[in-house]
Amino acid sequence: MSDSNKEFIFNMMSKVLDGKKITYEEALDLICSDNIETLADCAQNLTNKFAGDGIDVETLVNAKSGTCPEDCSFCAQSSFNSTVIEKYPLLPAEKILVQAENAVNNGANSFCIVCAYRAPPEKDFKQICETIKLIREKLDIQVNVSLGFMTLERARELKRLGVKRYNHNLETAKSFFEKICTTHSYNDRINTAKIVKKAGLELCSGGIIGMGETINQRVELGIALSSLEPDEVPINMLIGREGTPLFNKHLISEKEILQTIATFRFLMPRTILKIAGGREIHLKENDKKILQAGANGIITGGYLTTRGNKPTDDFKMLKEIGVRQK
Ligand code: SF4
């Protein structure tokens, strides 16, 4: 561990504290730094300074599962993949309301309705709008959605209904994207992210690490996300599901996860940086470390097609490390 590397990390922290952006090369030096303790501490300082000291706790509902026409190679819900999952059409509003009530009762501060579509058919979009109205009338919880590609008209309708945040991940670096998806382009994803912002919705956009991308491509993803100025960035860690082309591939180490999240904090000091899918498998009990190294959000109670920690266990963990919920 060299003193010059430690000094470099402190210099980068000062640069960000001064309101300046770090460059691609600087981010690359940060992500490769073995001085984990200093990297984590400085990332945490930036979180405290720019993003407040609370943790965002979100719950998801998979409101329409499977049979997606896109060929994303990591995804258990793609119709190109043969992962054994429960597949169902759009859930009725009442069923989604019950899940939102559970989220409130479990203590989550936001609830995200996620559907596996390229883009929802008109009938489904209308039903989702009715569901959002019902939740907003009955419950006091932030409603977020993730429905695939958006038009400006639809995004404005969601904003009018009180949706706070729209999730649309970039998934990975542009230079790696065609290795994981061929049925749509990176620019299609950027386009929806921009539409979401134009409509006045908050943007949630992140990706998946550990799919075989290089360290440089992780930085490339961080820079691309940073240029979109997202309000939230969920970072998933690949679980190579059976039936997908990425089955059993590229397990990422805990150290690399920490280096990536901490570097992303330097790139996006103000965002909610959320450790998402794969947390329980890749980090086990060590998710605490990442929440003290730049991350300030978790998803609790499970993911779209995989189980997660029980909310009671997650809240216990937050209490142990002495952080409050946002
Ligand atoms: S578009 Fe979304 S739901 Fe469809 S295959 Fe890709 S990641 Fe999965």
What would the keywords be for this entry?
single chain, 326 residues, alpha/beta, nine-stranded parallel sheet, 44% helix
What is this entry, summarized?
By secondary structure, the chain is of the alpha/beta class.
Description:
The chain starts with a helix and ends in a 6-residue tail after the last helix. The protein has one domain (3-320): Aldolase class I (TIM Barrel). The chain is an alpha/beta fold. A nine-stranded parallel sheet has the order 5-4-3-2-1-9-8-7-6, covered by helices on one side. The longest helix is centred in the middle third of the chain and has 17 residues, at 122-138. It has 13 helices and nine strands. Residues 68, 70, 72, 75, 77-78, 116, 148 line the site of iron/sulfur cluster. The site of iron/sulfur cluster has 8 residues, from loops.
Provide a count of the helices.
13
And the CATH topology? TIM Barrel
Distinct bound molecules: iron/sulfur cluster
CATH class: Alpha Beta
Largest sheet: 9 strands, parallel
Mean pLDDT: 90
- What is the fourth-level CATH superfamily? Aldolase class I
Radius of gyration: 19 Å
Spell the H/E element sequence: HHHEHEHEHEHHEEHEHEHHEH
Our measurement of the CA-to-CA distance between the termini, rounded to an integer number of angstroms, reads 35 Å
Structure class? alpha/beta
How many beta-strand segments? Answer: 9
Extract low-pLDDT stretches. Answer: none
The strand line-up of the biggest sheet is 5-4-3-2-1-9-8-7-6
